[in-house]
Amino acid sequence: MSRYDRLARTPAVRRVQQEMGSADAAERRLRTPDAGPEPLGAAETAFVQGLDGFLFATVNEDGWPYVQHRGGPPGFVHVLDPHTLGYLDVRGNRQYLTTGNLRGGDGRVALFFLDHARQARLKVFGRATAVPADRDPVLAERLATPRTEGRVEQLVTIRVEAHAWNCSQHITPRFTERELADVLGPVRDRLERLDRLERENALLRAELAAATGRAPASPAQD
Fold this sequence. Notes:
Structural class: alpha+beta
Keywords: Coiled coil
CATH architecture of the largest domain: Roll
CATH superfamily of the largest domain: Electron Transport, Fmn-binding Protein, Chain A
Strand order of the largest sheet: 2-1-5-6-7-4-3
Helix content: 25-40%
Coiled coil: 187-214
Order of helices and strands: HHHHEEEEHEEHEH
Organism: Kitasatospora saccharophila
Protein name: Pyridoxamine 5'-phosphate oxidase family protein
CATH topology of the largest domain: Pnp Oxidase, Chain A
Strand content: 25-35%
Distance between the termini: 71 Å
Oligomer: single chain
InterPro entries: Pyridox_Oxase_N, Split_barrel_FMN-bd
Number of helices: 7
Radius of gyration: 27 Å
Shape: elongated
């Protein structure tokens, strides 16, 4: 069993699985030793660095969960090493709920990376820290390209504890403007050429009509 499953399957979860009849296979896998934090592999690294956003979940001091979206250009979340993610946090609405939760707790977080176009998602458990941007100039420079536009306030790093790929069955395919531009570019070019030809044909019909003294024919009459 992956470390992600081991961390996610608490006693309460396992009791529900037993109730629903899905616990037997999981129980057998739980007998394998815990090998410690799981490193990100090549597939996970490429997936994270190719996305322009993710969901970031923390828990406040009263036990309430909070989920925040973080976005930027593809690659703004950097894989610093197989166990560490990082990004530059820029000024937003200045509520600082996620930062407060990190400082008020033990830093445990859940990250959700979702690619609608490819119907893929990656779940990550980790421990996060957020420190002022001037605390580590070397790391700040390493995270600077690419990064989210705006005033940088913090360096956020996540020490990865575990990760798991999720089922793609119910992910609705959706595409970003950038992804659509790559596909629709040739179509737009062809439409522009057709429009240009129609204008040229209309001009030629008008010139022919002027030369012969006849009314220009409409496209449907050609």
